[in-house]
Amino acid sequence: MKSLLSNALRRNRQAFALALFIGSLMTGCKKENNQKADEAQSRNTASLVAESSLFGNDLSLQTIWELQEAKIATAKYNSFNQAIRDGYVDINVIVPEMGYHYLKMDRLNATFEFDKSEILVYNREENGQMKLVALEYAVPISLSPDAPAGFTGDNDHWAVYQGTLWTLHAWVWEPNPGGVFNPTNPNVHVH
């Protein structure tokens, strides 16, 4: 129920933002301002189409937008030290074709938010540096007996981890030939 409410609120915020945007265009803006807005919208659409080649062509533009927003929200965690400073801790889960998992405990709740992943997944490169490769979403089964709604569309499939968590990977930082929501990625080799 909370997940449905969260999704409805998110859609309402998006609709409100769209209405504000359209309203601002209709309040007497000069023609050149409208042209600039149209050009910006075209660039945004082109950006979404470009991201679709990274995330998979079978996703809706809404899902690609959500994945892109998740990527933007976690860009600072390309700095492994920033993730540690922000409270992500090593949970000692190291999985071949996944990587090293770091959890932010205060995000572990019944709510799915695409721009606030509970887990960051890193891979240790040969030089010892930690590289962000995926986001992982986790919802305790005790708080949500059914799989969360997740991203828009039907392409994400939640898995059960050790009978305690619903989990979902989003490979927004490392292309995955198996798909952006596939739990494993053959491009990730744990060192």
Strand order across the largest sheet: 1-2-3-4-6-5
Could you estimate the helical fraction of the residues in percent?
25-40%
Gross geometry: globular
Overall number of domains:
1
- What is the number of strand segments? 6
Largest sheet: number of strands, sense, barrel closure: 6 strands, antiparallel
What is the CA-based Rg, rounded? 18 Å
Mean pLDDT: 80
Q: Order of helices and strands, N to C?
A: HHHHEEEEEE
Which regions have little confidence, pLDDT < 50, spanning 5+ residues? 1-13, 15-34, 36-46
Structural class: alpha+beta
Compute the separation of the termini in Å: 41 Å
Strand content: 15-25%
Number of helices: 4
Describe the 3D structure.
- Strand 3 and strand 4 form a beta hairpin.
- The chain contains four helices and six strands, in the order ααααββββββ.
- The chain is an alpha+beta fold and 191 residues long.
- The longest helix is centred in the first third of the chain and has 25 residues.
- The protein has one domain.
